[in-house]
Design a protein that fits this description.
Helices cover 22% and strands 28% of the residues. The protein has seven helices and twelve strands. The protein has an eight-stranded antiparallel beta barrel.
Length: 270
């Protein structure tokens, strides 16, 4: 899925789902009564029903026990409602995960405080309802690989390969497109931000190419700072409970800001 010492304000947007790992554990303080585990982690009453609905291929039942959206790895599309869950069920839940759940019991789920309950080291997460699926089926992995190749083909030749992998994409209110990529280097990561003007087409060269890194921050915010070494820079803050971000831009000596929202690269670049 990052920070610097910049403190960026993030404009309020609609809530989006996040992996439960991004949430902090609730703790009791001195003098307070310790919270009951089930009250903190949610009820266990739906765990059995969720397990059996997946194991038995009952897509409609699972759809009624799910909190949406259910996020899928990029470039797959998130599952936004029960109709999409029913249609996508067999793609996401293949034989290996169904067999694991067929043999499992409620005791195989681990309570993790305010994060709910996890199964199989986080393959599935429940907090009253199914809230996250980190399991990736064989079919989905094929779709991810095919989608990534299709997307890379739309990039300018100078941006392809060399280990760079897509992280996120934002569309500014003025039509500017911001693309963030990541490359692993040993135990650290390098980050690249490319900026394209409104109307960008497949194969276009970016208007700006900036490099940056992300420092330590809270579980709720990530702060990014990028520079091209020629006086141009972009910083922004990403909060888990806000969809939009404010791009603070310094370009050719001018300072200005652009509000931007998450988007899909292939939905914008044709």
């Amino acid at each position: 899925m990052l920070i610097s010492i910049f403190v960026c304000g993030c404009s309020k947007g609609k809530s989006v789902s996040v992996e439960p790992d991004a949430l902090t554990d609730s703790v009791s303080t001195a003098g307070e009564t310790e919270t009951d585990e089930e009250e903190l982690s949610g009820s266990t009453k739906n765990i059995e029903a969720i397990m059996r609905s997946i194991a038995n291929g009952d897509a409609k039942k699972l759809a009624s026990l799910t909190a949406y959206p259910i996020m899928r790895p990029y470039p797959l599309e998130d599952i936004e409602d029960s109709a999409q869950m029913v249609a996508y069920f067999n793609t996401m839940f293949d034989a290996p995960i169904r067999e694991k759940l067929r043999k499992a019991t409620v005791d195989d789920w681990e309570a993790v405080g305010a994060k709910g309950y996890l199964f199989d080291n986080g393959s599935l997460w429940i907090h009253d309802s199914l809230i996250a699926v980190n399991y990736v089926s064989k079919k989905e992995q094929q779709m991810i690989n095919e989608g990534s190749k299709k997307e890379e083909a739309t990039l300018h030749a100078s941006l392809r390969g060399e280990g760079w992998k897509f992280m996120s994409c934002y569309l500014g209110e003025d039509g500017t497109l911001f693309r963030l990529d990541q490359k692993s280097k040993g135990k650290s990561n390098n980050y690249r931000l490319t900026v394209f003007p409104k109307g960008v087409k497949a194969g276009d060269k970016p208007q700006l190419l900036l490099m940056g890194e992300v420092g330590a921050g809270s579980a709720y915010e990530q702060n990014y700072l990028f520079s091209d070494g020629r006086g141009n820079s972009i910083s922004f803050c990403k909060s888990i409970d806000e969809e939009s971000v404010i791009m603070e831009i310094v370009k050719d000596g001018k300072e200005y800001s652009v509000q931007a929202v998450p988007c899909r690269w292939l939905d914008v670049v044709k």
